[in-house]
């Protein structure tokens, strides 16, 4: 609703409220009279003088013809504003005060008394300031904030969803009432510490068990950036979902529980802390923030020793995965349940001098993305809603409304009907944004997660056979040609078979062996030929890193990570 429609009511309230106050302040006002005030200069272009008994009715008038103004065209708007100014100036004391209160919200206290003494010029200035609040909610003209996708990863019950919910509350994305409702419902289930995570764990199963299953999405804004939270599941049965979430992220937040015993279980051989950090690295996350959560727990109580102990154990491991501890990793203590050190620094924690979490996210350097490249949008999910709707993160290129694109690998030509970036409708999108696209020319059944939208003049490669360099991370026995595993590449999940081992690669020197290995075992690096069960979309790692790195999983464990070196054309 236009602020101008609601103005008149509040002015009358304003006048009633100020009358007694003004009477009480008369003696002081007289004392403060400015004797050396400038002489009054009449304004020749001033509107006709309206006596005060008519003024009340004059102020009401716009309210009666408000509907017309609302329905009127843009062109009529300025004239409307001029009439306001004319109503304004004769208003004198209270009018000026009320106006100021609307304009800049709450500076009216001193202004009310001073408004009478103000010269004509000051009044003019006020008029110019007034329209500002109306401009604020219009985002299109503002420079677009950089979109950053943050994935929360870590062992089950480390507090990922709770931190996500807390951040949304602190940045005002979830209002207090909704949280109070969650808190009541959580209390009824004897789960009162879980209420924050319910902001992200929306479906019933996740709430009953307190475990995230699907990747929750939400977003929040800081001054400089627009963040999408991807809340990945920590449970080992849902790692495939977590890979899908991590493949859309630019930045990972590894959440670690500092509570005695919880950190250790998350970090041992079967724990998810190791696996998630590794998967995030293969999914192409360059920067990692390690949040050491639950610092407010009685067993920890913000102790520096425990924080350092967690840090010492993590650094060598993260180094091994491929993060550079000096550049890519940032540690910080926090508490998701109380919200300590997420937005404001903590008094209990004098030894941590860095920025709180949200401020740190805001201060990160910008990511480089090519908006002029070919369009590539791996599809994460799809559903029917007045047409076919797909979700995904735009990896490169830019998409606009009514653009013609091609869905690979089955080469359907589609048209973009509408674009939603984080549930806000836009006309065009740049790389890094999470989009919902409504498409024309394709049925929902014909799309699978892992398909890719491309620009018609530059299609992505698709095929079944490719050569890749793989690192075997953990596998008990040896791996020979004929071995089957599940391949996770960008958002696509497909069964593959290792058809041939080409050579071993020396980890230290990078030299390739002359002879073909008969098998590979844990911690070895090899180049192998893989063949997928169906046609998949992929690119070589050199051309397009986001679509050229993959993980191989088997029996619920991540066995290997790798990158695509070359695509092998099919023999007819």
From TrEMBL:
The residue ranges of the Tr-type G domain are: 145-371
Question: How far does the signal peptide extend, from start to end residue?
Answer: none
Q: What reaction does this catalyse?
A: GTP + H2O = GDP + phosphate + H(+)
Q: Please note every region of biased composition (Acidic residues).
A: 118-128
Pfam (any one)? GTP-eEF1A_C
In its UniProt record, a GO molecular function of this protein is: GTP binding
For this record, an example GO cellular component is: cytosol
Identify the InterPro entries for this entry: EFTu-like_2, G_TR_CS, GTP-eEF1A_C, P-loop_NTPase, T_Tr_GTP-bd_dom, TRAFAC_GTPase_members, Transl_B-barrel_sf, Transl_elong_EF1A/Init_IF2_C
* Protein's GO biological process: nuclear-transcribed mRNA catabolic process, nonsense-mediated decay
Q: Which domain of life is it from?
A: Eukaryota
Q: Which residues form a coiled coil?
A: none
Q: Which UniProt keywords apply?
A: GTP-binding, Hydrolase, Nonsense-mediated mRNA decay, Nucleotide-binding, Protein biosynthesis
User: Which residues fall in a compositionally biased region of kind Gly residues?
Assistant: 93-106
Its family remark reads:
Belongs to the TRAFAC class translation factor GTPase superfamily. Classic translation factor GTPase family. EF-Tu/EF-1A subfamily.
Spell out the protein name for this chain: Tr-type G domain-containing protein
Organism this protein belongs to:
Oreochromis aureus
Originating gene: GSPT1
């Amino acid at each position: 609703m236009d602020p101008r429609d609601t103005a008149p009511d509040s002015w009358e309230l304003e006048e009633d409220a100020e009358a007694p106050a003004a009477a009480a302040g008369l003696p002081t006002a007289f004392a403060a009279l400015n004797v050396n005030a400038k002489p009054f200069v009449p304004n020749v272009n001033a509107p006709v003088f309206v006596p005060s008994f008519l003024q009340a009715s004059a102020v009401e008038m716009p309210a009666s013809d408000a509907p017309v103004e609302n329905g009127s065209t843009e062109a009529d708007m300025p004239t409307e504003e001029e009439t306001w100014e004319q109503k304004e100036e004769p208003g004198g004391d209270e009018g000026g005060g009320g106006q100021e209160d609307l304009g800049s919200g709450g500076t009216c206290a001193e202004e009310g008394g001073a408004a009478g003494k103000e010269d004509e010029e000051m009044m003019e200035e006020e008029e110019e300031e007034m329209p500002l609040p109306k401009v604020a909610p219009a985002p299109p003209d503002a420079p677009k904030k950089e979109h950053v996708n943050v994935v929360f990863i870590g062992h089950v019950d480390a507090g990922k969803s709770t931190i996500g919910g807390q951040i949304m509350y602190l940045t005002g994305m979830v209002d207090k009432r909704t949280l109070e409702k969650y808190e009541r419902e959580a209390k009824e289930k004897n789960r009162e510490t879980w209420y924050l995570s319910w902001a992200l764990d929306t479906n019933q199963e996740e709430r009953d068990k307190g475990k995230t299953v699907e990747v929750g999405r939400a977003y929040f804004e800081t001054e400089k950036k627009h963040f999408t939270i991807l809340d990945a599941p920590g449970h080992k049965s849902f790692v495939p979902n977590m890979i899908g979430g991590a493949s859309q992220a630019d930045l990972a937040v590894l959440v670690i529980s500092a509570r005695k015993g919880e950190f250790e279980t998350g970090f041992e051989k079967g724990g998810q802390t190791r696996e998630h950090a590794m998967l995030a690295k293969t999914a192409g996350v360059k920067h990692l923030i390690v949040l050491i959560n639950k610092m407010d727990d009685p067993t920890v109580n913000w102790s520096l020793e425990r924080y350092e102990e967690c840090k010492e154990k993590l650094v060598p491991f993260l180094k091994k995965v491929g993060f550079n501890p000096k550049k890519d990793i940032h540690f910080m203590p926090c508490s998701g349940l109380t919200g300590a050190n997420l937005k404001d620094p903590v008094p209990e924690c004098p030894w941590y001098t860095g920025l709180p979490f949200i401020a740190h996210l805001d201060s990160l350097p910008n990511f480089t993305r090519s908006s002029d490249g070919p369009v590539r949008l791996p599809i994460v999910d799809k559903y029917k809603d007045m047409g076919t709707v797909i979700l995904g993160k735009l990896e490169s290129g830019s998409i606009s409304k009514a653009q013609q694109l091609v869905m690979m690998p089955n080469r359907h030509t589609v048209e973009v009907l509408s674009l939603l970036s984080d549930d806000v409708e836009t006309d065009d999108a740049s790389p890094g944004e999470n989009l919902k696209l409504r498409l024309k020319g394709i049925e929902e059944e014909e799309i699978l997660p892992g398909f890719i939208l491309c620009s018609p003049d530059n299609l992505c490669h698709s095929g079944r056979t490719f050569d890749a360099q793989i690192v075997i991370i953990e596998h008990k026995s040896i791996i020979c040609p004929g071995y089957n595993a599940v391949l996770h590449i960008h958002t696509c999940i497909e069964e593959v078979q290792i058809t041939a081992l080409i050579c071993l690669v020396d980890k230290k020197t990078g030299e390739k062996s002359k002879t073909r290995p008969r098998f590979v075992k844990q911690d070895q690096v090899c180049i192998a030929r893989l063949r997928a069960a169906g046609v998949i979309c992929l690119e070589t790692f050199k051309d397009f890193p986001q679509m050229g790195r993959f993980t191989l999983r088997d029996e619920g464990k991540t066995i290997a990570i790798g990158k695509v070196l070359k695509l092998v054309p099919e023999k007819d």
